[in-house]
Design brief:
Elements lengths: L2 E5 L6 H7 L7 E5 L2 H15 L6 E5 H18 L4 E2 L24 E2 L3 H7 L3 H11 L2 E4 L7 H10 L5 E6 L22 H10 L3 E3 L5 E2 L4 H11 L4 E2 L7 E3 L3 H9 L4 E4 L10 E3 L12 E5 L1 H9 L7 H11 L6 E5 L10
Parallel strand pairs: 1-7, 1-8, 2-3, 2-6, 4-5, 6-7, 9-10, 11-15, 12-13, 12-14, 14-15
Length: about 350
């Protein structure tokens, strides 16, 4: 069976790559992490076929894990009432075989341990067999967001007797499906070691197929490579403006422009404008010009001429934000937008 993981750069068309590989005959299982990316996939599938083909099943990860993998085997026996995304209490400590380690007092499954619970209850084999029974092809989008027990579960499912293709961008790792203590805590610390985990699971690693961004201009790609330190090349030679703006009147005009998105590090909802948070903009492909709002620390990094030394998680979110731009990329200090906060 063909099994591979494709590492892509932002805007290279990884979602379109998967959609283009679909047909109306084979039985496809598509799994992604966020609701936003599920919606993006769904709209692209409908655009391609004119409807949503019944041979294609599209899940967000936890709906797949709970609805497809857990419920048919364990729901009745364990009398559980869905998931909780609250973290399990640290104390009292439970043995690995104690159901109270995985199920809350309200009979809700701890989402961050459900994949491990399936393994602990010896249901992993039946789950893999169920995947093989109902599907011919498994696609996983945004694979870089799988962490904790979920990453181990994903690799276990990849051993199923069907074609598997995972796609993702290591440097767009801004969220984890889950965390649980030290389980895969350092998974995203080293790109080479990360690739090695897939190779060990017998997946071919492809870094060539989706190496050029079709979304971002040459100017934006060069900025990301040189100033953020994440290598990305453009598919063509389009140029666009990349600038820092601190003229209050110009910043106000940008803020009021309903066609230009403002991307905030956090709390975008406190501003009455077309906006989103850096990390949450991942998977969005509809923006033209983009305004990235910088806090004082990142304004200082701009003036130093490099974002390479900022916190790694922040740097990844900044990369996500910058790479949303199809057109111009403008940076503004958040101090000039604070007067417009609504709360």
């Amino acid at each position: 069976m063909d099994k591979s993981v494709i590492f892509a750069v932002a805007g290279s068309g990884k979602t379109s790559y998967l959609v283009d590989a679909l047909d109306e005959v084979q039985r496809f299982l598509i799994v992604t992490y966020t609701d936003a990316n599920r919606d993006n996939l769904r709209s692209k599938i409908i655009r391609r076929f004119g409807y949503f083909p019944p041979n294609i099943s599209l899940y967000t990860y936890f709906k797949f894990l709970h609805g497809f993998c857990y419920r048919p085997f364990l729901r009745s026996a364990k009398n559980t009432k869905g998931l909780t995304f609250n973290l399990p209490p640290i104390f009292p400590l439970r043995s690995i075989s104690d159901d109270r380690r995985y199920i809350s007092a309200a009979r809700r499954l701890y989402a961050n341990r459900l994949a491990r619970y399936i393994e602990q209850t010896k249901m992993l084999g039946p789950v893999v067999a169920r995947v093989e029974k109902y599907f011919d092809v498994l696609f996983v989008d945004e694979v870089q967001d799988f962490g904790g027990h979920d990453f181990n579960f994903l690799l276990a499912v990849s051993a199923a007797k069907l074609r598997c293709t995972f796609v993702g961008d290591f440097f767009q790792h801004t969220f984890d499906t889950s965390r649980d203590g030290s389980v895969n805590a350092g998974l995203h610390d080293d790109y080479v070691k990360y690739q090695a985990r897939f190779k060990k699971a017998k997946l071919d690693v492809d870094t060539a197929s989706l190496k050029a961004s079709r979304r971002c201009s040459k100017s934006v790609c060069e900025f990301i490579t040189e100033k953020i330190g994440i290598a990305i090349t453009a598919h063509d030679d389009r140029e666009s403006a990349v600038r820092f703006e601190e003229d209050p009147s110009v910043v106000r005009a940008l803020y009021e422009d309903k066609n230009t998105v403002k991307l905030f590090y956090q709390e975008h909802h406190k501003y009455d404008c077309f906006s989103q948070n850096w990390g949450a903009s991942k998977g969005v492909d509809r923006y033209g010009d983009v305004v990235v709002v910088l806090n004082p620390g990142n304004v200082a990094a701009w003036k130093r001429g490099s974002f390479k030394d900022i916190n790694a998680a922040t740097r990844n979110k900044l990369y996500v934000a910058c790479s949303r731009a199809r057109g111009n990329l403008t940076f503004v200090p958040d101090s000039l937008l604070k007067p417009y906060r609504t709360e």
